[in-house]
Predict the 3D structure of the following.
Amino acid sequence: MRIGIKQWFASGLPWIWLNGAAVSINVIMVVGVLALIAVRGLGHFWPAPILQAHVQGQQQITSLIGSIVDDELVSAEQLRGSGVVLPASQESAKRLLIKTGNRDVTRADFVWVLEQSLRQITYPQELMALERREWGNFYGRLVAIKQAGTVVADQGKQADQEMWQLMQERVQRSLNIYDDIQAIEKGAIGEINHGMERLRLKHRSLELENQLTPLLQAELEAERRQLDRRYTGLQQRLIDLYAAFERDSMIAETMSGTQIEINLSKVVRAYRPNAMTSMAKVNFYMSKIWEFVSTEPREANTEGGVFPAIFGTVLMVLLMSVMVTPIGVVAAVYLREYAKQGLVTRIIRIAVNNLAGVPSIVYGVFGLGFFIYFLGGNIDELFFAAAAPAPTFGTPGLLWASLTLALLTVPVVIVATEEGLSRIPRAVREGSLALGATKSETLWRVVLPMASPAIMTGVILAVARAAGEVAPLMLVGVVKLAPSLPLDGNYPYLHLDQKFMHLGFHIYDVGFQSPNVEAARPLVYATAFLLVLVIALLNLSAVAIRNRLREKYKALES
């Protein structure tokens, strides 16, 4: 028996099973975490039913309208600390977190309620939810519709469904007007402002160089007057649009019976989840998912979408990859192919390996001091004196963030590239040299193509690390909310000096800096899940390229 066990251990099977079990456990844990994040995040966008109930307290009964968000089991001792006393025979109770909305009325849009204190729970179909640009959601009933201060529909004159359809039409009209306003303010007027700033900088530059002749000044003034005329016409168009935008409003009734007037220009979406069919709920859910990935955030980043953060993350990673790849490859080629293998080279390799373990915030401090204050400040003095004292590159921005992360990940690319170069057979190099090729030609046409899969492996590892970094970005370019994307239709189109948004920092900001924690929590899960997907897509793209290169040069390696 003892001999059989010794042979079994000697065969290595126990270690194979142990490794397989460890890998299986890791996979299950990763899938479980992703499933938890997906359920908690993506479930937020499903139209939850709105309940109506009475809350029975010790002294009074109050009305309640809202959606159940979460629940938990609390002990009698915990409740006693909050002033609630359970019967002596009851050791615990279930507590519900209900989103009641109406923060502009009640000052709090979430409330904890004991499940056993709810009475007469119903789900009336006429209860509505309004997503607003300010003050969060509103829950209540539609009472009347007004146009320019005059009631055009109310409960006494129109059927409920007819009035609801009328309001939906007016909400859609307000949304169309809002899109027109945004197109003018961010599109046409943004282009005019960019042109005016360009003229100002040109005028100042000519003054500094003592080249501002009366003829050039007249030309600049003519261009400025032309831009002013365009701006005046757009401003009048905006005045007309805003007048139509603020025309429609509605009267709504809250859970306490109070009636308030809500301008439809503040409404993003109006729906009645209790009256929705299953297909309508699916359509609503898909529209919310699309809104989340394609629009800008609102309400202190607790509502709306995260498209600027997605765009900033992907663009920064692409720029970082473009910067880190040649730097890492050149360094690895020199260390492996040209440097004399001795004490100095070994010290350099040790230093490169140690750089991979330096905390990321240290790179952020270095990027702030060297790239921004020193390099960016000197660039401003040499090339952007006309913009002084406002900094152009002497301030955190997309370029410095990408360079900082490139510096952060360059050790990974160097090590991976060196490993790839070391695996290339010496006979391949000698065969190329024997055919008359120079060393540089051999390196460029034979060695580097064969090492390209290893280079892509280094890039994949660099992307995986850099895409989720937050600490250094807080110092070198990322912001809570960027007014515009760093890529637009204005020259030079890619604005490397602009600040940008990032999914990782967005998670930090929403999760730890939000004034409304309960409203922000689902978006933390949703954004975290989206960040994982973005990193996975970037890595899968690099893996696909690496596999293609590996197949292409497999014959040469063999």
Remarks:
- The mean pLDDT is 88.
- The chain is about 60% helix and 15% strand.
- The chain has three domains: 51-123, 141-275, 310-480+488-557.
